[in-house]
Amino acid sequence: MEAAATSDTESDSSSDDLSWGEADIHPSLLERVDEEKCRSIRKQYRQLIYSVQQNRDDIVNTASDSLTEALEEANVLFDAVSRTREAALDAQFLVLASDLGKEKAKQLNSDMNFFNQVAFCDFLFIFVGLNWMEDDGRDPLNNCDDNIAFSFWETVQKEATSWMLQAETFHFLFGSFKPESAARKPRLDHRRKVQKMEENGDMPTKLRKLDLSGNQEATEKEVERILGLLQTYFRKYPDTPVSYFEFVIDPHSFSRTVENIFYVSFIIRDGFARIRLDQDRLPILEPININLAGEGNDPSFHSRKQGVISLSLQDWKNIVATFEISEAMITNSY
Amino acid sequence: MSQKPKSRGRPSSQVEREPDGGGREAPSTSRWPGGAASQRRAQASPAPGPRSQKQLELKVAELVQFLLIKDQKKIPIRRTDILRHVVGDYKDVLSELLRRAAERLEYVFGYRLVELEPRSNTYILVNTLEPVEEDAEVRGDQGTPTTGLLMIVLGLIFMKGNSIKETEVWDFLRRLGVHPAKKHLIFGDPKKLITEDFVRQRYLDYRRIPHTDPVDYELQWGPRTNLETSKMKVLKFVAKVHNQDPKDWPAQYCEALADEEARARPQPAGPSPATAPAPTAAPVS
């Protein structure tokens, strides 16, 4: 009836066996709890759990018996367990052990074992060409030269991208062409465009400024600005024509020079200034006074003349040197 | 003489008309017989009406630009965003716009617009052109080389049975100099890159494993990965690194082969923007 030797293991499964005579409760449960003992059991459990967690890799990966040993140790501990507090720790250990057991079983699957991730690592080094560094410790990429890391990942990247169908990311090549910085996100631009188009399409009577020619506006603005600069100059130095080259050339930027020539041509076309050759056969810009009455003013009086200016990069450099132009007369608007 | 009512089509009480109602004398701009009443209704809430080809083309162009720019971050593009930022009033023809935009993207850029998952209402761009060896030289610097890291992780996941614990990933990556808690020269914050960025881009799925203590997560392939690459391709990558034949891993090879066959079969409900349901079917001229 007593079966004291085996009764300890059943201290927690008291529901299984109710045949203990008059008392329904196992006698060991009625004993005064030895706090010291329980504390020691808990401590051992915790140590066991900790050590199993620390050695997880070892337990799971190799064909070791450490898991079985741990289980046996827990079994022994459990014999002394009589309280729920310790039993809870035992349960916690069991969860951990079964988890590891599952891992181990997965590893044992002989097919999957073919893939050895440690080998994969080594092969990556060889693939990139880093194998010559291996005698310098196992991990060539830890505490290595920056260049080595860069070249490793670049090589891997190159190989990896050839196995993927990634769409290249889209970026505007040189940014916006507008002179003002385009700080707005493209999405907002679409919204504004949407609104404009809607107004045009829906209610014809409500048609506001039709901004179909954004570029033209920018050109006009530039032309006006440069005309302003030119007129300021003429006001400051009346009756002094300005050398054409000195006006349009920007010694720091060939492209800006070309733009300036472009804008000045509008000024001349619209009759705000005149270009002619001076006594040295160099082109100069002269103001046309609109207030002057008489035939000099009538645009149709001047027979239409056309001038073509060609300027190569070398020409531009030569002019900058010859005329000793150090600063652009037309300052940037930004 | 009673005054004739201004609105045409309304049957005057004095003039005899056909029983089927007005709209016979004057050409009504409304499409349905019923004359003034429906005209009033149309004016009260302006119906989209027929849109010119030019307007549609403009919308499609905007949509293409929007999709290209949104794709920069490689985060799937949501339908709601498309509606809100580009399509707006044109939402009744959304499926048509998407179809045309997809066409445009394919013909001009060689990109396919695909729905990430059926009924997910998010889209991504996938390249239709297989990468060519020489392209790699020309591609130049496209930012951080994260694809290499991604491919390694994808390879690990697949070779280990389509799922891997996060701790295993770090055990592996540590040997390559990539640590979860240490700033990386190239990748910055590798943990964020792998567990957040790649997940947001839908290359990976990052799930918590229940009942683990300390908490552990598992990584699997995300939907984007299956669209941009395949098990066979990843296996070939791994094999190439090993300088071996993919068949040397029979289990993985079989799995990859089965995947290839599944892909070759015609899809029952192909992921295409044209199948996105349109709210109404308004006539478009």
UniProtKB/TrEMBL annotation, chain A:
Keyword set for this entry? Chromosome, Cytoplasm, DNA damage, DNA recombination, DNA repair, Nucleus, Repressor, Telomere, Transcription, Transcription regulation
Regions crossing the membrane: none
Which residue numbers delimit the Non-structural maintenance of chromosome element 4 C-terminal domain? Answer: 241-330
**Entry's localization field:** Chromosome, Telomere; Cytoplasm; Nucleus
Domain Nse4/EID protein Nse3/MAGE-binding, residue spans = 90-138
Against InterPro entries, the record matches this protein to: Nse4/EID, Nse4_C, Nse4_Nse3-bd
Can you supply a Gene Ontology BP term from the record?
Answer: DNA recombination
The record's function comment reads: Acts as a repressor of nuclear receptor-dependent transcription possibly by interfering with CREBBP-dependent coactivation. May function as a coinhibitor of other CREBBP/EP300-dependent transcription factors. Tissue-specific component of the SMC5-SMC6 complex, a complex involved in repair of DNA double-strand breaks by homologous recombination. The complex may promote sister chromatid homologous recombination by recruiting the SMC1-SMC3 cohesin complex to double-strand breaks. The complex is required for telomere maintenance via recombination and mediates sumoylation of shelterin complex (telosome) components.
Give the family, as the similarity comment puts it: Belongs to the NSE4 family.
Outline the subunit composition: Component of the SMC5-SMC6 complex.
Name recorded for this polypeptide = Non-structural maintenance of chromosomes element 4
Q: Taxonomic classification, please?
A: Eukaryota, Metazoa, Chordata, Craniata, Vertebrata
Automatic annotation (TrEMBL), chain B:
Disordered: annotated span: 1-53, 259-285
Q: Where is the MAGE domain?
A: 56-256
| Superkingdom to which the source organism belongs | Eukaryota
- Could you state one GO biological process linked to this protein? negative regulation of transcription by RNA polymerase II
Spell out the Pfam families in the cross-references. Answer: MAGE (PF01454)
> Which residue windows does the record flag with biased composition (Low complexity)?
33-46
PROSITE patterns hit by this protein:
MAGE
Its cellular-component GO annotations read:
nucleus
UniProt xrefs under InterPro entries: MAGE (IPR037445), MAGE_WH1 (IPR041898), MAGE_WH2 (IPR041899), MHD_dom (IPR002190)
Q: What is this protein called?
A: MAGE domain-containing protein
